[in-house]
Design brief:
The protein is α/β, with parallel strands linked by helices. Helices cover 48% and strands 15% of the residues. The strands form two sheets. It has a four-stranded parallel beta sheet with strand order 2-1-3-4, with helices on both faces.
Length: 365
Amino acid sequence: MTRFRPEPAFDHAAAARDAVLLVNLGTPEAPTPAAVRRYLAEFLSDARVVEIPRLLWWPILHGVVLNVRPRVSARKYAEIWAADGSPLAVHTARQAGLLADRLARGAAPGTLEVAYAMRYGQPSIAAALDRLRAAGCDRVLVLPLYPQYAASTTASTMDAVGAWFARTRNIPELRIVKHFHDHPGYIEAIAAIVRRHWQSHGRGRMLLMSFHGLPRYTLERGDPYHCECHKTARLLAESLGLEREEWKITFQSRFGRTEWLTPYTEPTLIELARAGVERVDVVCPGFVSDCLETLEEIGIGGKRAFHTHGGREFHLIPCLNESQEWIEALATMAGEHLWAARKHSGAELAARKTRAGALGAGGPK
């Protein structure tokens, strides 16, 4: 068996194209135990996600986790599943479409493609790259939708891109956006969402900024994620004009018994409620799309914990989703990393095809 995938047909008269590939984490295909089990099996098998030696982790994963967690997670997914599918998938697809429309304003017709993929689940990174190569894209900008860099997210995405490269004969030129935790457009897009929420619903005494958690050892081993979350929080607070006592940073989604980044989100919500804070507003800057972690973990579980311990008013501020400010920020970031536009006249392309034909090249298959 050949190591490399078959190459798509090449048309000497076709202009080369650039591409932007948005990548998000992924989602099950349905809110069912079977679909969640498939998703978790792929996700939790990634050595970037779980840094436990395989000999120790495999019996736990296949003997315990994948037999228990899918049923629990499926019920949670069912609570937030939309009529048109998983919120994460729906928002990511819409973001890609809106970004394509926005970038098309400054590009020659047919010279730029925008696609999206999921690190786990569908559409896969390999499938998306296959489609872009078949469309004639020979320069690809990969833009992972993780504002803060982590080995378990951004680096894992690059692993998947590298695996596709390893099976591709004629590889495209590649650029990667490592992170955008302090990009002015990203910060201002979140600030705009918060301001709009406050204008419509009033403002509480406390803004809680909840980021996805990671095991504490990732920080100790050199992962910059913790520092980048703190910088995002500080910049967002400055943009909103908040005093230090008016905001807190926390970390959610703890899994397993090991220590994770602290302070934890739900215990902090409980502490605030017990301390007499009647209203709390929660924003999740690390997620660019609403998903299970925002809608269910915070919007349902966090709200329940706050109310149960005496809190009265809980506000989950939406993620960036398809906000105009976020699409503009995405377009700006893509523009900062894309290559200079190429110019190919019809006559030049026709001449190229003629020269190739004279050398024995055939037409596209």
